[in-house]
TrEMBL record, chain A:
Database matches in Pfam families: BPD_transp_2
Keyword field: Cell membrane, Membrane, Transmembrane, Transmembrane helix
Signal peptide as annotated in the record: none
Membrane topology, from the record: Multi-pass membrane protein
Record-given protein name: Branched-chain amino acid ABC transporter permease
CDD domains xref list: TM_PBP1_LivM_like
Example of a GO MF term: branched-chain amino acid transmembrane transporter activity
GO cellular component terms, A-Z: plasma membrane
InterPro entries hit by this protein: ABC_transp_permease, LivM-like
Compartments, record wording: Cell membrane
Species in which this protein is naturally found: Cellulomonas terrae
Membrane-spanning segments: 12-34, 40-60, 67-87, 93-117, 124-143, 173-192, 223-245, 251-269, 276-294, 306-328
Gene name for this UniProt entry: livM
From TrEMBL, chain B:
UniProt source species: Cellulomonas terrae
Taxonomy, superkingdom: Bacteria
Name of the encoding gene: livG
Protein name: ABC transporter ATP-binding protein
Pfam family, one: BCA_ABC_TP_C
Lineage: Bacteria, Bacillati, Actinomycetota, Actinomycetes, Micrococcales
PANTHER family: ABC TRANSPORTER ATP-BINDING PROTEIN, CONSERVED COMPONENT OF ABC TRANSPORTER FOR NATURAL AMINO ACIDS-RELATED
């Protein structure tokens, strides 16, 4: 008896894993070339990428718009922190157990939201998810004995493992952990999107009735997609908590949630590479703006602090949509397609003789 | 061309609709409709706009809930869930094509057989059968309309259904494409598939169907072979508004 065959064009799992392992090794090697602050930024990009990759798969493949992925990151972060603090042991086992707990917490919340999301669409779903992120501070205050209100939950400082302490700095270690975890998340999402489930998601996005008539359980596909996307965001929140050693509602505001959407749209909806580009943009752009405004008078710098970044993100979004509607990844793909192949002969500098239509004798 | 008299069918029908009624609030869209479609038979469902043809399709597919009546496929009641139709050997095309615009031709056909062990081979076989293989990797939206219709048909046929519901398959097609569609429908029925089609193109219906059921205002007003139905004055009145006078 033969098992289920791959779809045409579907990359073999082993090849996907090898490609992921290759990129992970490259990224880990890259951490040795970066200074501590750059490694900190790399860890942030990796944490954000978990959330944006999940979000781009959700929005791009199923058409479900979530404005509340920051809240799902927070759920993962709280799950990680509370579990980590409750564990009687330290080190890698504690990290793994806490990470799984964060993923589980976000899966449960994502499943509940997904069940509602399967019955909603467009602005209604966006509104529901936005309400969740707006409610986050109130939830943290209401259960302040556990979630510690606005202060959030802190985790015990855990440095570099003894075996690596001589060769790896703290920020580099955090970046390495973030890269490995993000690689696992992105690989999982790539496999999910590339197979039968991915095709089901796209079919549901394009025509739900036709998909159902083709035997695709649209509701279940939407719920699973939302849950998978939530887990990715939750893992991102856990990584962020690991890097920052704290999780609080102030880090997961509506503005940050919208920023995740901006990253996905600017990078290119549905593209995981686009999500990576978008994550780089939302980490580097505020830092670049901060560098540019650093030399301004203190009063002007204070007024611009925070506000200028929002303005620039808005302008960036408008510009990218006007110039490259499919985002940065879409623009890169289009550019690659336009580039002539080296095998194709280039047109000669001398123009071809112009053809002139001359009427025949009969036509005359 | 079909026979002159209604053929006598034996055995259980593949599709049996019994006393089906569908109401939308105070509006009766279908009222006590019964019809059968047997294995290897092509039945046409015709009627003026608003007669209830697509509503009947939607009721069979579970897209609208019947207020009364029963629908069975192979003698077993159909679940009121469209996603379980394909597992029961029922496939349907939609009036508005219902293609997945963001997918290629091959992916559209694959979507019709994702539950199969080897959907790639099944899809390729269907693409070859309908001469779509050359377009397999093109975006479905880039194809001309008749080719898009073929893709929708290929997706419905790829799972080798036992009952095929075609909603206006000839709409928007030229004479050559309609002739080819007729051949395809007859060929599909020859494999044992029961075909029920809704169509406004009367010549196509008369040429391809074994039997025709005429609906008007949600009720069956005539049923029989194409010739029997064509000569029925009630059908003329329903379609053309001709007042039928009896001597």
């Amino acid at each position: 008896m033969t098992g289920r065959q791959r779809l045409p064009g579907q990359r073999p799992l082993l090849r996907t894993l090898l490609v992921a392992a290759g990129w992970t090794v490259v990224a880990l090697g890259g951490t040795f070339a970066l200074d501590p602050f750059r490694n900190y930024q790399l860890a942030l990009v990796a944490a954000y990428l978990c959330a944006t990759a999940g979000l781009t798969v959700l929005v791009g493949a199923t058409g479900q718009l979530s404005l509340g992925h920051a809240a799902l990151m927070a759920v993962g972060g709280y799950g990680f922190a509370l579990t980590r603090n409750a564990l009687p042991f330290d080190g890698l086992p504690a990290f793994v157990v806490a990470l799984l707990a964060g993923a589980l917490a976000s899966a449960v919340v994502g499943l509940l939201l997904g069940l509602a999301a399967a019955r909603l669409s467009g602005p209604y779903l966006a509104g529901l998810t936005l309400a969740v992120v707006i409610a986050l501070p109130a939830v943290a205050s209401t259960w302040s004995t556990v979630l510690h209100g606005d202060q959030g939950v802190h985790i015990a400082f855990e440095g570099v493992p003894d075996a690596l302490r001589r060769v790896v700095a703290l920020e580099q270690w955090q970046a390495m952990v973030a890269v490995v975890v993000t690689s696992a998340v992105v690989t999982g999402l790539t496999v999910l999107r590339g197979g039968r489930f991915g095709l089901r998601m796209l079919a549901v996005r394009d025509d739900e009735v036709a998909a159902r008539l083709s035997g695709i359980p649209a509701g279940r596909v939407k719920v699973l997609a939302f849950t998978a996307s939530s887990v990715a965001a939750g893992v991102g929140g856990a990584v962020l908590c690991f890097v920052a050693q704290t999780v609080s509602p102030g880090a997961y505001t509506v503005g940050f949630s919208l920023l995740l959407v901006v990253a996905v749209v600017v990078g290119g909806l549905g593209s995981i590479l686009g999500a990576a580009l978008g994550s780089v943009v939302i980490v580097l752009l505020p830092w670049l703006i901060g560098r540019l405004t650093a030399n301004l008078p203190a009063d002007a710098a204070q007024r611009l602090d925070g506000n200028l970044a929002v303005l620039v993100f808005g302008l960036l979004l408008i510009t990218v949509m006007a110039v490259a509607p499919h985002g940065l990844h879409g623009a890169l793909v289009a550019r690659r397609r336009r580039r002539p192949s080296p095998d194709v002969p280039r047109p000669t500098a001398e123009p071809a003789p112009r053809k002139v239509l001359v009427p025949t004798e009969e036509q005359r | 061309m079909s026979a002159q008299t209604t053929p006598v069918r034996t055995g259980d029908p593949r599709l049996a609709v019994r006393s089906l009624s569908v109401r939308f609030g105070g509006l009766s869209a279908l009222d006590d409709v019964s019809l059968d479609v047997h294995e290897g038979e092509v039945v046409g469902l015709i009627g003026p706009n608003g007669a209830g043809k697509t509503t009947l399709f939607n009721a069979v597919c579970g897209l609208v809930r019947a207020s009364a009546g029963a629908i069975t496929v192979g003698g077993v009641p159909l679940p009121p869930d469209p996603t379980r139709l394909s597992a029961r050997g029922v496939a349907r095309t939609l009036q508005g094509l219902g293609l997945f615009r963001g997918l290629t031709v091959r992916e559209n056909v694959l979507a019709g057989c994702l539950g199969a062990t080897d959907p790639g081979t099944d899809a390729q076989r269907q693409l070859d059968a309908l001469d779509l293989a050359a377009h397999a990797d093109r975006s479905v939206g880039d194809l001309p309309y008749p080719e898009q219709k073929k893709v929708a048909l290929a997706r419905a046929l790829v799972a080798e259904p036992q009952l095929l519901l075609l909603d206006e398959p000839a709409g928007g097609l030229g004479p050559d494409d309609i002739a080819a569609l007729g051949d395809l429908v007859r060929h599909t029925a020859a494999t044992g598939c029961a075909v029920l089609l809704v169509e406004h193109h009367v010549d196509f219906v008369m040429g391809v169907c074994d039997r025709v059921v005429v609906l008007d205002f949600g009720r069956v007003i005539a049923t029989g072979t194409p010739d029997e139905v064509a000569g029925d004055p009630a059908v003329d009145e329903a379609y053309l508004g001709i007042e039928v006078t009896t001597p």
